[in-house]
Specification:
This protein is mostly beta strands. The protein is built from one helix and eight strands; from the N terminus they run αββββββββ. The longest helix has 12 residues.
Length: about 170
Amino acid sequence: MKFSAPPQEPVKYVESLVWLPYHYVAGDYRAVYLRALKDKKILGSRCDKTGRVFVPPVINSPESFAPCSELVQVSDRGRITTFCIVNIPVIGRNLELPYVAASVLLDGADVPMFALIQECRVEEVHMGMRVEAVWKPDDQRQGDHEDILYFRPSQEPASGDWPRPL
């Protein structure tokens, strides 16, 4: 193979189609978590050392490295810990701009999960806001992360204990 001299100008952009097939294997904890979503249940795992609950469940705590041997059900309601207003479209998602992406600390969990916030104006979203999951209809849930469509404001008032240390 014969190579020519390097280009005089640096390459700034390359357009190419890439095919990256993969097969995801959930593992025991994640498979139980995903099956529970089909029944509108959210599971976490409790750290044997610290008692902290991680959602989705993990086998070992990323903080203490201790086993998380107990699976526990947490609420599908929680509180927004932080959020951002998104004004840039995401390829593959058909969301009306702007929208809110937030960290939601579910009741009974100690680590927030990332979620979409809908059914309110972006100006109304705030840290500490109480939210609830909006689930797919019973006959459409399949046991995957898309079984929770998004979170919406609940009618619960924000409590005075916010923010709390995580």
